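SAMPLE LOG
Freezer: B-3
Tube label: C17
Construct: single chain, 405 aa
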Amino acid sequence: MLHQNFPGQFRRLAGRLAAIGHRVRAMGERHAPGLPGIPMTRYEIRKEPKAGHRYLNTVTAAAIRGEAVAKGLVQLAKQGYRPDVVLAHPGWGEALYVKDALPQARLVSLFEFYYRAQGADVGFEPGAAVGLDTLATLTSRNLLHLMNLERCDAGVSPTHWQKSLHPARYHDKISVVHEGIDTAAMSPEPAARLTLRDGRVLKVGDPVVTYVARHLEPYRGFHVFLRALPEIQRRNPQALTVVVGGDNVSYGRKPEGAANWREKLLSEVGDRLDMTRVVFTGQLPYAAYRALLRVSAAHVYLTYPFVLSWSALEAMSCGCLLVASNTPPVAEVMRHGDNALLFDFFDQQGLVERVSEALERPGELAPLRTAARRAIRNGYGVERGLAGYMALLGASQPPTTSPKP
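STRUCTURE (predicted):
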């Protein structure tokens, strides 16, 4: 298995394959966490020189990574390790030369995103300028993805919308399989409690508004949410808002004139907020994160037309009442009035209305919680994801012969 930050999305699959008798080996960058019980080869990128032209920086970095991985695979082959199948996340270039190093191996690649000048994240914000440099850079970045699409034997995307971004001529090559949510672990718990750092204890039934993202940034609608929060507080004077996320940037750019987006947005609206009713936790340990979802009365989720967050699906699996932006990746999983309350991404007043509705009508809207969990159990459960991936790998059953040396 090949992933820059192994195990990444392959955590459960790697463990399952090893458990049923397949010989699993991983490759990842030096800093990758790894997985107990899975032997791992690590490569190091000491320096990523820039290309001759700025449009090709991504392609050059990908070639460097691909070379490091290919040389590692050749070395493993000399030692007798010749895999039948390679499962790769090709987004950083590591899979580029796998077929050159291991021509006999089946290459299955995970395709999360294909850049678009229209209809996705670029230019989504009103007034965002999309000039020639941006368009040309996107085109050049897609050179990597096109090569990955060409070279793999099969591809996989987590959602239909993510697959749809890729060129139509490759759609027959891409299956839609989500890695899967552990619905047993991420489940409702009526007795759930969460103790905050200041000693306050939150429980099911409390008017708790939650927002979760890896980092607090516009791609996940943090600016829309925080600008709506003063009015949410005014309309719901008993509500406590808990915001989970770091202060770095996963996607997009850092703000101008501030260290991070939290600082920038608080300088804009902080004087209209009751900060005794807002808690910024940073990133939480798993148990605390799960407890927070379980006690949430209204869970706010926004995203650009981009990769759908695992946290949104885990919130649904926990039976949260989702208040979410009606953007394409969300609309594939959530339906307004059925398993969530949806609003237009930029409609701050709509967000206020939906959150207030969730807090004011918890009993009436309880069926949406049940439907949200059912949608994840039926369509995004981990067992379904594992079965789909194993079929792609040709590994649905334990091997009938001894693994190759």
